[in-house]
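[Automated response] Your request has been received and processed.

Submitted sequence:
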Amino acid sequence: MKISNYPINRIIDLSPGHYWWLTLTIVLCLGLSGCAVNDQHDGQPESNADSLAAAEVQQLLEQIPPQVAENIGLQDAQTDPDVIEHVLAGEFLGSQGDLVGAAQEYALAAAISDEVQIADRATRVALQAQAWDSVQQSAQRWLELSGSDHEALQALAIAQLELGDPDGVIESLSQLINDSEPRSRGWQQAGSVLANSGDDQLADEILLALVNRDDLGDSSDGLYGQSVLAWRLGDMERAKALALAAAEETRRLDILEWAAQIAYATDDAEAAVNAYQKALGIAPGDRDLTLALAEVLKRDGQLDAALESLRGLGNNTEALYTRAAYQLEGGNREAAEDLYQQLAALTVIPVGQIALNQDVDPSITDAVEAPRNPAVVHAFYTGQLAEQLDYKQQALDWYLQADGGEYATPAIIRAAALTAELGRMEDAQALLQPLQNSDDEDTVVNAFINESGLLQNAGMADQAVQRLTVALGRLSSNVDLLYARSLAAAANKDVDLAEQDLRRVIRENPNNAAALNALGYTLTDLTDRHDEALSLIEKALKLNPTDAATLDSMGWVKYRLGDLNEAEEFLRRAFALDDNPEIGAHLGEVLWQLGSQQEARDIWQHAATQDPEHLVLQTTLQRLEVIL
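Generated structure:
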């Protein structure tokens, strides 16, 4: 069986004492002349205890700091020199990088010691070495001494899985589940073992065996755990069936919420709604449950029911915003505007506002900068709603008030975008400048890319290239900046620079579908290298077959190569996935050339309602001398 890289630190904590090998090596050098643990043969220390007298062992133990002795399982009560010899040999081998040898020595120590801690350490060392025989031997000894231990059972199951003993795995995980309280915790721990197996089929067979065992019971808690395990193994239908069965006889909110989530993930909106409603019957007015129920109802086409459920949250910021957004999505602008007025008039007291005006504990005033400061959250959400209603100046004013915590960066970026739309480009760039001077690389990159987008939208692609060049002067290898500059260069008709940047990105990652598509589209649109472009786009489409932008590129290169029928097919698929103005402009042009001129006009008209000034759309209409 393939050896898997189990997330040992997640399953079994290897601490304390990550430094123990180094410490013990130093101690050994202090206690033995010439740093010799035993006689050397072929460069390896012997594990035979005969070369150390009991008095020497005791003398060495006395020189080990008590904390280190405790960490490696050597207690005052431990007097067996053979145990001590194996432990010390294991520590020394570990310090030399021989983890397998260390595991073997520790397994020998555990076999003759009655100390649980030594068996514990032996198991951990063997896991780290992926020495599965030693893991099994030491974990079994650990269980003999402790009676039952969740970590020991997990380790034993991992070893049995790797050694090809499915029956052993089933017995170990069954004991783990039965010994857990609540039982769902044991199922989740079993899932940690099986989900990291290198053999999915075997893991699935073990799961079925566990689910079908009578001794594991069918309580709601057990069914919940089985559902989580099935989900982790990718069996969504089984996960849903188990979750819904668990939800029938329980009042536990975590089980009901899980059932709702897994039902919705498998397109069973009715079951999801029922589970959320049952949960809200137990916890009326719960914010998260209410919002989740409303979202499921809205996506299921039950807008009125979704809005009604949100009324249970009252008239706070999040409830008013969500209701307004739902109304807008449903085409009810007047209702959304009324809710916006309520939201804008809502009085929200900032966290720590009183403390700012008094001489009080400064820890209270620190709360003003908390990520969820109510006043900042309120300003950001109100700005978002104002923007959705196209109240640009009001949205800008609100965003400028959202100047703290997690909303600071997105608020500034939206404020800059609105400022640019209002015709104040220099002010927009000034708003982004503090972000571009940040110590956080992601913030810097995001700010420069957003500035580039604003400049390109304003028809200043050359300046966008200049600004991204400045950014690359600081972060020369940043792939996102290179990709952004390539797009700006293409918009500026600078094919050489666009190709240079995109090929550099592709060299870094030959399977970067976005870069392959961008280069293919650039060569299609700005050069006559259409065969080369086709090859690039074909590779991108193979990597990302449902990406609308790549389908659009494929349609466009087919059009340039004269294959109108295939061009139409690809462009229709792209337009069905994303009816944006650029894809609409391309599809309309192909249909125009195919003689379907009325349909082309209809598509262009739709594109114009989305963005009447869209550059590709306007260029297409001008080239074909079409007036809508």
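Summary generated for your ticket: The longest strand covers residues 40-41. The chain is about 70% helix and 0% strand.
If you did not submit this request, please reply to this message.
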